[in-house]
Every structure is written in structure tokens, then in C-alpha cells.
Amino acid sequence: MSEPLVRIEHLTKLFTSGFIGGFQIRAVDDVSFNIREGEIISLVGESGSGKTTVGKLILRLLKPTSGRILFRGEDINEFKGDKLRKYYYKHVQAVFQDPFASFNPLYPVDRAFDLVFENFLPHTSREKREELIAKSLEDVGLNPNEVLGKYPHQLSGGQLQRILIARALLVEPSLLVADEAVSMLDASTRIDVLNLLGEVRDKLRTSVLFVTHDLALGYYISDTTLIMYRGRLVEFGDTEKVFKNPLHPYTKMLLESVPDLNVKWEFKGEIKPEEEEKGIYEITGCNYAPRCPLATDKCWKVRPKVIEFEKKHWVACHRTGEG
Ligand SMILES: Nc1ncnc2c1ncn2[C@@H]1O[C@H](COP(=O)(O)OP(=O)(O)OP(=O)(O)O)[C@@H](O)[C@H]1O
């Protein structure tokens, strides 16, 4: 098999929280996976599971505490000078959740393209720049005449998000990190932008890391799904397999929590406060043990290894396979 575009090996990121006597958070804890050329991977998990941190580590916006990220076989944290500049501006691009926050309200949206030209295509003539910008806007379904020269407040969230995608695609990146990139869009625009990501992959062979807490969106767009819980990958593999044959109790619980269009809310009795998960980050075993209905003594004490349960389907759970 050919070398993956990105190989993530035992990636760990600790943050220290609090002041005096602060504690350490294992935001990412020994995570390994690959991103192949032209693959769309969704990274799914609830709030605080470490998804954004993984994205930022890949974008080299953060340094890992340990572990490595190899881009075409080379450690991105060893990149310097021209290689680093190329990595930041050519190989990887990102689109984040809030399109309004990515624009300076004092300038027309056109300015978003300037940084790309200054850093990556500095010798491009004015005419050529205009031509490239117009083409990239058309590629994402925007009419350049309707958006260029406008200020962020004059455009919708969907239009701004498409401009950001157009900017990211201007350099034809190898990898696009889309972190909750459609969460703030209305349902129909969301599907358009998701379809756009699919088209980008097909046209440019760009790989996409699609970070989301929404399982349905992950299923819709991705070839591979990674399920993350409290810094660890608990299950991952071929999207069809993960969704059709979920193995980890956490994945099963997530899938059961997706609201069904035909089911109405009904009163189920008093809501009890959740039991506090004390010392979760010091658990030596499975992070999910405090919430898992199947947890045994071993689950609390021994960290489960990631095993390939079936072809292209991995899980980290002591109870998987025990019936
Ligand atoms: N700079 C930081 N300093 C301290 N702790 C941090 C920092 N960044 C993230 N964390 C912590 O790391 C953990 C993982 O955060 P992260 O943002 O990666 O999760 P997430 O899955 O992306 O969540 P969300 O879906 O809410 O964005 C959280 O407990 C968070 O509070």
C-alpha cells in the first residue's frame, strides 16, 4: 500500500489548566490514524473530546506533547523555512466554525485572499489574481460580482463560509481541515457546503478532515469515521461499518441519541443530575468506564488496546466480542 498523505503516530497533547496546583488535561491521548490522498474522514465526538486539538496539531497551530505527524513521510514539526511556509499555505488549509470571526469587519471580504497571494503566490499579476479569485468563487457556487467588494456584514454566513472555502481551495491544498465548518449554517446551505466538499475531493483529490459532533453529517460525507471520546479514539474505520455495525458502547450510545424524525418528545420522568466523573483523567483503564453500562473491573484498570475487529474496522474496548 502507498504511503498515506498524513500518518498520525501516538499523538498526545497535554494542557495544564488552572493556576497554582493546576491539573493536566489529556486533550489528545495516544491517537494514531492515517489520512489517505483524496479521502474524507470525519472526526466525531462530543464537546471537549479533543477533536479541535487534533485538527490544530495537524495544522501545526499547536505542538504535540509527544507523538508525530508525518506529512508524505516527513515530520511536520521538523519543517523549517520554505518547507514550513509551503506546509502552512499550500499543503494544508482550514475552514472553521464561525465564518464571521474569520473576516475583519473593517475590510471588504476580498482581503481574505490577500494573505494567500502574499505568502504563496506573491508574483501573480493583478489581472491574474482577479481571474483566479473569480474562478475559485465560481467553483464554490458564488457569483464574484455579488460578493467581491462587500463587507462581511453585507453577506450571509453561507456566503462567507463559501468564500473561506474558495480561499482555501485557491492553492489546491492536499488537505483541508473543516472544523465544524457547517455547524452555523442553515440546513439547506449546510448540505450545499457538504456537497461542495465532496466535489472538491473528486475534482482536486483534496483530502478532508471533517470535524463534527453531528453523526448524520459525518455519515453523509465521509469514507472513514473516527469516534473520539475524552482524548482517545474508541472506534474507527470504514464509515459504513462503523455506522452499520457499531462496536463500542460509546458509539452505540451516540447512534441511539440521534433524534428520529418520526419520534416526538415525551415526558420520561424526573431528570437526575449526572454523577460527577471524578478524576476522569487519572483513570488507568478505559476513559468510558464511568459511563459504560458494561464496564467491569478490568475496564477501570486496564487501558484497552486498539484492535482490528474486522477488515477496516478498529475498536478499543475490552467487552467487544464478548457478546
Ligand atoms: N489551550 C487550551 N488550554 C487548556 N485546555 C485546553 C486548551 N484547548 C483545549 N483545551 C481542553 O482540551 C480538551 C479538548 O478540547 P477540544 O477543543 O479539542 O475539544 P473538541 O472535541 O473540539 O470540543 P468542541 O466540540 O466543544 O469544540 C477540553 O477539555 C478543553 O477544555
Structure summarized in a few sentences:
InterPro entries: AAA+_ATPase, ABC_transporter-like_ATP-bd, ABC_transporter-like_CS, Oligopep_ABC_C, P-loop_NTPase. The protein is of the alpha/beta class and 323 residues long.
What does this protein look like?
The protein has 323 residues and is of the alpha/beta class. It has one domain: Rossmann fold, CATH 3.40.50.300. Helix content is 33%, strand content 23%. The strands form two sheets. An eight-stranded mixed β-sheet has the order 6-7-8-3-9-10-12-11, sandwiched between helices. A hairpin with a 2-residue loop joins strand 9 (224-229) and strand 10. The two termini are 33 Å apart. The model is unreliable at 275-280 (pLDDT under 50). The chain binds adenosine-5'-triphosphate (ATP).
